[in-house]
Amino acid sequence: MMEAPATAIEQYFNQLIHMRLLTQVVVSDRHGNSIVACTGDSQMPEDSEVATNEDVYNNDDDFIVSNVVISGARCFQNFEQLQLGSPEYISLQYHDNTVVQILDGECCMLTLIGARSQGHCVGGLLVLLPQIRATEAYQELLKKTEECFQ
User: Fold this and answer.
1) Which of 14, 75, 143, 150 is the most exposed place for a label (fewest CB within 10 A)?
2) What is the pLDDT of residue 92?
3) 109: which DSSP letter?
4) In the 8-state DSSP scheme, what is residue 118?
5) Is residue 52 pLDDT above 80, yes or no?
6) DSSP H stretches of helix in 34-78
7) Residue 53 in this model has a pLDDT that exceeds 80
């Protein structure tokens, strides 16, 4: 049996994690020092059911899940405190810009930048990824870039 958390806020965050609404919560000050860190168990309980992407979106297309969001000048000085592993993509917002970065192939970082004032959002940029990747020109660009690094 787990020991009860020391504070009400930790109890609240742990309850959200237990309900699978969150996986991790790290609260830090402006200098990047951790104030509260609540991390969920990496393994699912046997009796819990989690909907797959097919169940939720009812299609076979690959769906990309973000596990890193940067919002603020100095959110985290040390990403290791988040225990993230490798992200599928990184999204961030800076002033009016919305940015999505993803590693394509072995050596290409694709960066998509939109403007919130123009109605662009992270989801809208992510929808473009399959379309971009499906183009012959983009595939050729990836191939030529990878050849340069071999």
Assistant:
1) 150
2) 84
3) E
4) G
5) no
6) 53-57
7) no
Q: CA separation (Å) from 134 to 48, 103, 138, 139, 140? A: 36, 16, 8, 7, 11
Q: Dump pLDDT digits (tens) for 138-147.
A: 888 888 888 8
- 70-78, long-range: CB < 8 A, 24+ apart: 74/30, 74/31, 74/32, 75/28, 75/32, 76/26, 76/28, 76/32, 77/31, 77/32, 78/32
Say how far residue 38 (Cα) sits from the centre of its chain. Answer: 17
Torsion on CA atoms 93, 138, 109, 116, rounded to nearest 10: 0
Tell me the residue type at 75. Answer: C
Tokens of 5: 């958390």
Closest-CA residue to 125 (of 97, 83, 95): 97
What are the residue ranges of helices labelled H in 27-98?
53-57
Tokens 């919305």 belong to which residue? 98
Against a cut of 0.85, is the pTM above it?
A: no
Q: Which residues contact 100 (CB under 8 A, 6 or more apart)?
A: 89, 90, 91, 111, 112, 122, 125, 126, 129
